[in-house]
Specification:
Elements: E1 2-7, H1 17-30, E2 34-42, H2 49-52, E3 57-63, H3 67-77, H4 81-84, H5 89-101, E4 106-110, E5 125-130, H6 133-143, H7 146-169, E6 172-175, H8 178-181, E7 188-189, E8 213-217, H9 223-235, E9 244-248, H10 254-257, E10 264-268, H11 273-279, E11 282-285, H12 295-302, E12 307-309, H13 311-314, E13 324-325, H14 329-341, H15 343-360, H16 363-367, H17 370-374
Parallel strand pairs: 1-2, 1-4, 2-3, 4-5, 5-6, 6-7, 8-9, 8-11, 9-10, 11-12, 12-13
Protein backbone atom coordinates (compact mmCIF):
# COMPACT_ATOMS: atom_id res chain seq x y z
CA UNK A 1 0.00 0.00 0.00
CA UNK A 2 1.20 3.54 -0.80
CA UNK A 3 0.15 6.70 1.05
CA UNK A 4 0.61 10.37 0.23
CA UNK A 5 1.09 12.35 3.45
CA UNK A 6 0.62 16.14 3.26
CA UNK A 7 1.71 18.39 6.11
CA UNK A 8 1.75 22.15 6.58
CA UNK A 9 4.99 21.79 8.54
CA UNK A 10 7.58 19.02 8.17
CA UNK A 11 6.86 16.52 10.97
CA UNK A 12 10.40 16.51 12.30
CA UNK A 13 11.95 16.97 14.70
CA UNK A 14 8.95 16.21 16.94
CA UNK A 15 9.61 19.11 19.30
CA UNK A 16 6.37 21.11 19.27
CA UNK A 17 2.70 20.24 19.52
CA UNK A 18 1.72 19.92 15.86
CA UNK A 19 4.95 18.13 14.89
CA UNK A 20 4.62 15.67 17.76
CA UNK A 21 1.20 14.59 16.45
CA UNK A 22 2.16 14.54 12.76
CA UNK A 23 5.47 12.73 13.44
CA UNK A 24 3.80 9.95 15.40
CA UNK A 25 1.05 9.53 12.81
CA UNK A 26 3.63 9.50 10.01
CA UNK A 27 5.71 6.91 11.90
CA UNK A 28 2.65 4.75 12.50
CA UNK A 29 1.70 4.82 8.82
CA UNK A 30 5.29 4.28 7.62
CA UNK A 31 5.51 1.07 9.68
CA UNK A 32 2.55 -0.31 7.74
CA UNK A 33 2.81 1.15 4.23
CA UNK A 34 5.05 3.02 1.79
CA UNK A 35 4.64 6.72 2.56
CA UNK A 36 5.47 9.69 0.34
CA UNK A 37 5.75 12.97 2.28
CA UNK A 38 5.06 16.39 0.78
CA UNK A 39 5.42 19.19 3.33
CA UNK A 40 6.46 22.74 3.94
CA UNK A 41 9.63 23.40 5.89
CA UNK A 42 10.65 26.67 7.49
CA UNK A 43 12.93 28.59 5.16
CA UNK A 44 16.54 27.62 5.84
CA UNK A 45 15.69 24.73 8.16
CA UNK A 46 17.66 21.51 7.88
CA UNK A 47 16.09 18.04 8.07
CA UNK A 48 18.26 15.20 9.35
CA UNK A 49 18.91 12.22 7.09
CA UNK A 50 17.41 9.78 9.60
CA UNK A 51 14.13 11.68 9.51
CA UNK A 52 14.11 11.68 5.71
CA UNK A 53 14.74 7.94 5.76
CA UNK A 54 11.48 7.41 7.62
CA UNK A 55 9.56 7.71 4.35
CA UNK A 56 10.01 6.41 0.80
CA UNK A 57 10.04 9.89 -0.68
CA UNK A 58 10.44 13.23 1.07
CA UNK A 59 9.59 16.43 -0.81
CA UNK A 60 10.08 19.53 1.33
CA UNK A 61 9.27 23.02 0.10
CA UNK A 62 10.71 26.03 1.98
CA UNK A 63 8.03 28.46 3.13
CA UNK A 64 9.07 32.08 3.22
CA UNK A 65 5.88 33.97 2.33
CA UNK A 66 5.33 36.88 4.73
CA UNK A 67 2.09 37.31 6.64
CA UNK A 68 1.61 40.69 4.95
CA UNK A 69 1.80 39.14 1.48
CA UNK A 70 -0.56 36.36 2.54
CA UNK A 71 -3.04 38.96 3.83
CA UNK A 72 -2.93 40.90 0.56
CA UNK A 73 -3.47 37.69 -1.43
CA UNK A 74 -6.33 36.66 0.83
CA UNK A 75 -8.12 40.00 0.53
CA UNK A 76 -7.58 40.11 -3.26
CA UNK A 77 -8.98 36.61 -3.81
CA UNK A 78 -11.63 36.49 -1.05
CA UNK A 79 -9.87 33.51 0.54
CA UNK A 80 -8.84 32.89 4.15
CA UNK A 81 -5.39 34.24 4.93
CA UNK A 82 -4.69 30.94 6.67
CA UNK A 83 -4.86 29.30 3.24
CA UNK A 84 -3.05 31.91 1.15
CA UNK A 85 -0.20 31.79 3.68
CA UNK A 86 0.32 28.17 2.59
CA UNK A 87 -0.56 28.55 -1.10
CA UNK A 88 2.45 27.52 -3.18
CA UNK A 89 2.56 26.18 -6.74
CA UNK A 90 5.50 23.94 -5.88
CA UNK A 91 3.40 21.93 -3.43
CA UNK A 92 0.60 21.62 -5.95
CA UNK A 93 3.05 20.45 -8.61
CA UNK A 94 4.62 17.89 -6.25
CA UNK A 95 1.20 16.44 -5.37
CA UNK A 96 0.19 16.23 -9.02
CA UNK A 97 3.49 14.59 -9.94
CA UNK A 98 3.25 11.94 -7.21
CA UNK A 99 -0.36 11.10 -8.01
CA UNK A 100 0.62 10.74 -11.66
CA UNK A 101 3.60 8.42 -11.22
CA UNK A 102 2.89 6.44 -8.03
CA UNK A 103 -0.01 4.04 -7.30
CA UNK A 104 -1.25 6.07 -4.34
CA UNK A 105 -3.99 4.23 -2.43
CA UNK A 106 -4.79 6.85 0.21
CA UNK A 107 -4.04 10.46 1.11
CA UNK A 108 -3.56 11.73 4.65
CA UNK A 109 -3.74 15.54 4.89
CA UNK A 110 -2.50 17.05 8.14
CA UNK A 111 -3.98 20.48 9.00
CA UNK A 112 -6.63 22.34 7.03
CA UNK A 113 -4.04 24.48 5.21
CA UNK A 114 -3.12 21.42 3.14
CA UNK A 115 -6.70 20.65 2.07
CA UNK A 116 -6.32 23.12 -0.81
CA UNK A 117 -4.04 20.54 -2.49
CA UNK A 118 -6.46 17.61 -2.29
CA UNK A 119 -7.82 16.21 -5.58
CA UNK A 120 -11.59 16.26 -5.83
CA UNK A 121 -11.98 12.82 -7.38
CA UNK A 122 -9.84 10.61 -5.11
CA UNK A 123 -11.45 7.65 -3.37
CA UNK A 124 -9.75 7.60 0.07
CA UNK A 125 -8.78 10.87 1.72
CA UNK A 126 -8.35 11.30 5.46
CA UNK A 127 -8.43 14.94 6.56
CA UNK A 128 -6.84 15.57 9.93
CA UNK A 129 -8.04 19.05 10.86
CA UNK A 130 -6.41 18.61 14.30
CA UNK A 131 -8.37 21.61 15.61
CA UNK A 132 -11.24 23.59 14.07
CA UNK A 133 -9.35 26.71 13.01
CA UNK A 134 -12.51 28.70 12.27
CA UNK A 135 -13.54 28.36 15.92
CA UNK A 136 -10.11 29.60 17.00
CA UNK A 137 -10.40 32.74 14.88
CA UNK A 138 -13.95 33.33 16.11
CA UNK A 139 -12.54 33.28 19.65
CA UNK A 140 -9.78 35.69 18.61
CA UNK A 141 -12.45 38.02 17.21
CA UNK A 142 -14.26 38.08 20.54
CA UNK A 143 -11.14 39.55 22.18
CA UNK A 144 -10.17 41.94 19.37
CA UNK A 145 -11.20 45.46 18.38
CA UNK A 146 -11.29 47.61 15.27
CA UNK A 147 -9.77 46.32 12.01
CA UNK A 148 -8.28 43.26 13.73
CA UNK A 149 -11.73 42.22 14.91
CA UNK A 150 -13.04 42.55 11.34
CA UNK A 151 -10.14 40.47 10.00
CA UNK A 152 -10.64 37.74 12.61
CA UNK A 153 -14.37 37.57 11.89
CA UNK A 154 -13.68 37.39 8.17
CA UNK A 155 -11.15 34.61 8.69
CA UNK A 156 -13.55 32.64 10.88
CA UNK A 157 -16.38 32.95 8.34
CA UNK A 158 -14.34 32.02 5.27
CA UNK A 159 -12.51 29.19 7.04
CA UNK A 160 -15.76 27.72 8.31
CA UNK A 161 -17.15 27.57 4.77
CA UNK A 162 -13.91 25.96 3.57
CA UNK A 163 -13.88 23.41 6.40
CA UNK A 164 -17.49 22.45 5.70
CA UNK A 165 -16.73 21.95 2.01
CA UNK A 166 -13.63 19.83 2.70
CA UNK A 167 -15.46 17.67 5.23
CA UNK A 168 -18.24 17.01 2.71
CA UNK A 169 -15.87 15.46 0.15
CA UNK A 170 -13.31 13.47 2.14
CA UNK A 171 -13.57 9.92 3.47
CA UNK A 172 -13.17 10.96 7.10
CA UNK A 173 -12.51 14.14 9.09
CA UNK A 174 -10.35 13.78 12.18
CA UNK A 175 -9.89 15.99 15.24
CA UNK A 176 -7.68 15.75 18.27
CA UNK A 177 -10.49 15.51 20.85
CA UNK A 178 -14.17 14.65 21.12
CA UNK A 179 -15.22 18.23 22.00
CA UNK A 180 -13.36 19.49 18.93
CA UNK A 181 -14.87 16.79 16.68
CA UNK A 182 -18.36 17.72 17.90
CA UNK A 183 -17.94 21.16 16.32
CA UNK A 184 -18.03 19.56 12.85
CA UNK A 185 -20.78 16.90 12.78
CA UNK A 186 -19.77 13.50 11.46
CA UNK A 187 -16.13 13.90 12.45
CA UNK A 188 -13.99 11.42 14.40
CA UNK A 189 -11.74 12.09 17.38
CA UNK A 190 -8.27 10.53 17.33
CA UNK A 191 -6.51 11.81 20.40
CA UNK A 192 -2.86 12.65 20.87
CA UNK A 193 -0.62 10.21 22.67
CA UNK A 194 2.59 10.57 24.64
CA UNK A 195 5.97 8.81 24.60
CA UNK A 196 6.17 7.71 28.22
CA UNK A 197 9.68 6.31 27.72
CA UNK A 198 11.05 9.66 26.59
CA UNK A 199 9.03 11.49 29.22
CA UNK A 200 10.04 9.47 32.25
CA UNK A 201 11.15 11.17 35.47
CA UNK A 202 13.37 8.19 36.28
CA UNK A 203 15.68 9.13 33.39
CA UNK A 204 15.59 12.93 33.58
CA UNK A 205 18.20 15.21 35.13
CA UNK A 206 16.60 18.28 36.65
CA UNK A 207 17.67 21.65 35.29
CA UNK A 208 19.44 23.91 37.80
CA UNK A 209 16.80 26.42 38.87
CA UNK A 210 15.61 28.34 41.92
CA UNK A 211 12.86 26.83 44.06
CA UNK A 212 9.96 26.72 44.61
CA UNK A 213 9.70 26.47 40.81
CA UNK A 214 6.56 26.82 38.67
CA UNK A 215 7.02 25.85 35.00
CA UNK A 216 5.13 26.53 31.80
CA UNK A 217 6.26 24.91 28.53
CA UNK A 218 5.34 25.69 24.94
CA UNK A 219 6.11 27.41 21.66
CA UNK A 220 6.47 30.99 22.84
CA UNK A 221 5.48 32.84 19.68
CA UNK A 222 2.07 31.11 19.69
CA UNK A 223 -0.55 33.62 20.77
CA UNK A 224 -2.48 31.45 23.30
CA UNK A 225 0.82 30.60 25.03
CA UNK A 226 1.92 34.24 25.03
CA UNK A 227 -1.38 35.38 26.52
CA UNK A 228 -1.24 32.59 29.12
CA UNK A 229 2.23 33.36 30.48
CA UNK A 230 1.66 37.12 30.42
CA UNK A 231 -1.52 36.68 32.47
CA UNK A 232 0.14 34.27 34.90
CA UNK A 233 3.27 36.40 35.39
CA UNK A 234 1.27 39.57 35.93
CA UNK A 235 -1.67 38.20 37.94
CA UNK A 236 -0.54 35.07 39.78
CA UNK A 237 3.17 35.38 40.59
CA UNK A 238 2.66 38.59 42.62
CA UNK A 239 0.40 36.51 44.91
CA UNK A 240 3.29 34.06 45.47
CA UNK A 241 6.33 36.25 46.20
CA UNK A 242 8.55 33.33 47.21
CA UNK A 243 8.12 31.28 44.00
CA UNK A 244 9.98 31.44 40.70
CA UNK A 245 8.16 31.12 37.36
CA UNK A 246 10.04 29.62 34.38
CA UNK A 247 8.68 30.11 30.86
CA UNK A 248 10.30 27.33 28.83
CA UNK A 249 10.10 27.25 25.03
CA UNK A 250 11.55 28.46 21.78
CA UNK A 251 10.99 31.76 19.98
CA UNK A 252 9.76 33.96 22.85
CA UNK A 253 8.20 37.15 21.55
CA UNK A 254 9.25 40.59 22.76
CA UNK A 255 6.21 40.57 25.05
CA UNK A 256 7.32 37.28 26.61
CA UNK A 257 10.95 38.39 26.97
CA UNK A 258 9.77 41.55 28.73
CA UNK A 259 8.31 39.38 31.52
CA UNK A 260 11.76 38.24 32.65
CA UNK A 261 12.82 39.57 36.01
CA UNK A 262 13.68 38.63 39.58
CA UNK A 263 10.71 36.26 39.82
CA UNK A 264 10.44 35.14 36.18
CA UNK A 265 12.89 33.32 33.88
CA UNK A 266 12.40 33.15 30.10
CA UNK A 267 14.62 30.35 28.84
CA UNK A 268 14.11 30.47 25.09
CA UNK A 269 14.87 27.20 23.30
CA UNK A 270 16.26 24.47 25.56
CA UNK A 271 18.04 21.22 24.75
CA UNK A 272 15.27 19.19 26.35
CA UNK A 273 12.05 20.20 28.07
CA UNK A 274 12.19 17.12 30.30
CA UNK A 275 14.92 18.63 32.50
CA UNK A 276 12.76 21.67 33.29
CA UNK A 277 9.72 19.51 33.93
CA UNK A 278 11.84 17.34 36.24
CA UNK A 279 12.88 20.46 38.14
CA UNK A 280 9.35 21.84 38.49
CA UNK A 281 7.56 21.77 41.79
CA UNK A 282 4.32 22.52 39.92
CA UNK A 283 3.54 22.76 36.20
CA UNK A 284 0.85 25.19 35.04
CA UNK A 285 -1.17 25.49 31.83
CA UNK A 286 -3.24 28.67 32.31
CA UNK A 287 -4.45 28.94 28.70
CA UNK A 288 -7.60 30.96 28.16
CA UNK A 289 -7.86 29.79 24.55
CA UNK A 290 -6.93 26.17 23.86
CA UNK A 291 -7.99 23.81 21.08
CA UNK A 292 -7.93 20.03 21.33
CA UNK A 293 -5.59 18.12 23.63
CA UNK A 294 -2.64 20.01 25.04
CA UNK A 295 0.60 18.04 24.64
CA UNK A 296 2.20 20.22 27.31
CA UNK A 297 -0.25 18.83 29.86
CA UNK A 298 0.31 15.20 28.80
CA UNK A 299 4.09 15.70 28.96
CA UNK A 300 3.93 17.13 32.47
CA UNK A 301 1.64 14.29 33.58
CA UNK A 302 4.04 11.71 32.08
CA UNK A 303 6.87 13.34 34.04
CA UNK A 304 4.84 12.79 37.24
CA UNK A 305 4.53 16.50 37.94
CA UNK A 306 1.54 17.98 39.75
CA UNK A 307 -0.34 20.00 37.13
CA UNK A 308 -2.74 22.92 37.51
CA UNK A 309 -4.55 23.76 34.26
CA UNK A 310 -7.30 26.06 33.08
CA UNK A 311 -10.63 24.51 32.10
CA UNK A 312 -9.75 25.14 28.44
CA UNK A 313 -6.34 23.43 28.71
CA UNK A 314 -7.80 20.44 30.53
CA UNK A 315 -10.75 19.98 28.18
CA UNK A 316 -10.53 16.77 26.18
CA UNK A 317 -7.94 15.14 28.47
CA UNK A 318 -9.11 12.08 30.32
CA UNK A 319 -7.13 12.93 33.46
CA UNK A 320 -9.42 11.13 35.93
CA UNK A 321 -8.92 13.86 38.52
CA UNK A 322 -5.12 13.57 38.47
CA UNK A 323 -4.67 17.23 37.52
CA UNK A 324 -6.15 20.23 39.27
CA UNK A 325 -8.28 22.87 37.55
CA UNK A 326 -8.14 26.60 38.22
CA UNK A 327 -9.61 29.63 36.50
CA UNK A 328 -8.96 32.76 38.55
CA UNK A 329 -5.60 34.10 39.73
CA UNK A 330 -6.45 33.59 43.40
CA UNK A 331 -7.49 30.02 42.67
CA UNK A 332 -4.14 29.26 40.99
CA UNK A 333 -2.23 30.85 43.86
CA UNK A 334 -4.20 28.90 46.48
CA UNK A 335 -3.76 25.54 44.75
CA UNK A 336 -0.05 26.15 44.11
CA UNK A 337 0.48 27.12 47.75
CA UNK A 338 -1.32 23.98 48.95
CA UNK A 339 0.90 21.76 46.77
CA UNK A 340 4.11 23.52 47.84
CA UNK A 341 3.15 23.18 51.49
CA UNK A 342 2.36 19.47 51.12
CA UNK A 343 5.12 17.77 49.04
CA UNK A 344 3.65 14.33 49.74
CA UNK A 345 0.33 15.33 48.22
CA UNK A 346 2.12 16.87 45.23
CA UNK A 347 4.17 13.70 44.67
CA UNK A 348 1.09 11.50 44.96
CA UNK A 349 -0.83 13.64 42.46
CA UNK A 350 2.09 13.53 40.02
CA UNK A 351 2.51 9.77 40.32
CA UNK A 352 -1.20 9.22 39.69
CA UNK A 353 -1.03 11.49 36.64
CA UNK A 354 1.82 9.44 35.15
CA UNK A 355 -0.07 6.20 35.68
CA UNK A 356 -3.13 7.68 33.98
CA UNK A 357 -1.06 8.71 30.95
CA UNK A 358 0.55 5.27 30.69
CA UNK A 359 -2.85 3.56 30.83
CA UNK A 360 -4.68 5.95 28.53
CA UNK A 361 -2.36 7.72 26.09
CA UNK A 362 0.09 5.35 24.40
CA UNK A 363 0.49 6.36 20.73
CA UNK A 364 -0.16 2.92 19.19
CA UNK A 365 -3.42 2.57 21.10
CA UNK A 366 -4.56 6.07 20.16
CA UNK A 367 -3.76 5.58 16.44
CA UNK A 368 -5.25 2.09 16.06
CA UNK A 369 -8.43 3.46 14.37
CA UNK A 370 -6.26 4.54 11.43
CA UNK A 371 -5.92 0.89 10.36
CA UNK A 372 -9.53 0.73 9.21
CA UNK A 373 -9.77 4.35 8.05
CA UNK A 374 -6.67 4.06 5.85
CA UNK A 375 -7.28 0.46 4.74
CA UNK A 376 -4.08 -0.72 6.41
CA UNK A 377 -3.09 -4.26 7.16
CA UNK A 378 -2.28 -4.57 10.88
CA UNK A 379 1.44 -4.44 11.68
Amino acid sequence: MEILFLAHRAPFPPDRGDRIRSFNILSYLAARARVHLVAFVDDGAEVAADHRALVDECILVPRSKSQARAAVEGLATNRPVSLTAFADRRIGAAVEDLLGRRPIDAIYAFSSQMAQYLPRDFSRIIMDFVDLDSAKFAAYADDARGPIKWMMRREARLLNAFEQDVASRVSASLFVSAPEAALLPGSIAIENGIDTVRYDPAHAVAAPAPHPLIVFTGQMDYRPNVDAVAWFAQRVTPLLPDVHFAIVGRAPTAQVRSLAGEQVTVTGEVADVQSWLAAADVVVAPLHLARGIQNKVLEAMAMARPVIASPAAAEGIDHAGTIQIAAQAADYASKIRDLLDDPAQAASLGAAARQQVIARYGWDARLKPLDELMGLAPA
